[in-house]
Design a protein that fits this description.
This protein is an alpha+beta fold and 241 residues long. It contains 2 helices and 12 strands. It comes from Trifolium medium.
């Protein structure tokens, strides 16, 4: 068992922060005194069970829509930005308690940019989706109310669908950080399928939130002013010729 300690700077921006535990085996991690949980990258998911097709409808089953077969089941760990320091140095302390002799040299702090968001909802439910802070929905990559097939990244239109699927999602979501849509036949103006209808969407989150952008510009302006004041104080009074 070995303890490791290092420091790192707070990543810029508003994207989600993760700790990549590549190279470690099993243990626990703390950032600035906050535990982010136990890690176990050497726990490998079963190589069987994954499929390109995905359908959650029907009775619950733990084997539905499996992904990541044969990959480490516990490699990336979310680090809330509230755990990180935002002072002038942005210095943060990472402590690892490695139980089984793993190497810390490949461990890294990264940011994850959310590109596309997928979601499904069955008839009678409400579909709710949200982009990360500072982002808005900018494009509909897939939207179908009917009996869509497949999974995120490979959705396909089924045997029937509402011709209003895209327009409903466009009006509800494009340009917004979050949106919700009631999954009913009246919403999509179609009676076919009845309670067997399902909504599947894949939306792109790369639009900028004007309000977040304005706040960030003000913050950056204040930082620039503070730096200029600091430089003036360090240089001292200037003599006139």
């Amino acid at each position: 068992m070995t303890w490791y300690k290092t420091t790192f700077k707070t990543p810029e921006g508003t994207d989600s922060v993760v700790l990549d535990c590549l190279g470690l085996t099993k243990g626990q991690a703390w950032i600035n005194g906050h535990s982010i949980g136990r890690y176990w990258p050497t726990m490998i998911a079963d190589t069987n069970g994954c499929s390109d097709k995905c359908d959650y409808r029907g009775s619950y089953g733990a084997d539905k829509c499996l992904s990541g077969c044969g990959e480490p089941s516990q490699r990336f760990y979310h680090v809330p930005r509230s755990f990180l320091n935002n002072n002038d140095t942005n210095s943060n302390t990472l402590i690892l308690f490695e139980e089984m002799g793993g190497s810390p040299f490949n461990v890294s702090v990264q940011t994850i940019t959310t590109g596309s968001i997928c979601a499904t909802a069955v008839y009678g439910k409400t579909l709710e989706v949200k982009c990360p802070d500072g982002k808005t929905f900018s494009k509909i990559e897939f939207a179908s109310y009917g009996n869509p097939q497949g999974k995120c990244g490979s959705f396909q239109v089924g045997q029937w669908e509402s011709r209003d699927s895209i327009s409903v999602i466009e009006n509800a979501c494009i340009g917004k950080q979050s949106c919700s849509v009631g999954v009913t036949s009246s919403t999509f103006k179609i009676n076919q399928g009845g309670s067997d209808g399902q909504l599947a969407v894949q939306l792109l989150c790369d639009g900028s939130d004007p309000e977040i952008g304005r706040v960030e510009r003000v913050k950056n302006l204040h930082k620039d002013i503070s730096r200029e004041k600091l430089l003036l104080n360090e240089s001292g009074p200037q003599s006139e010729l």
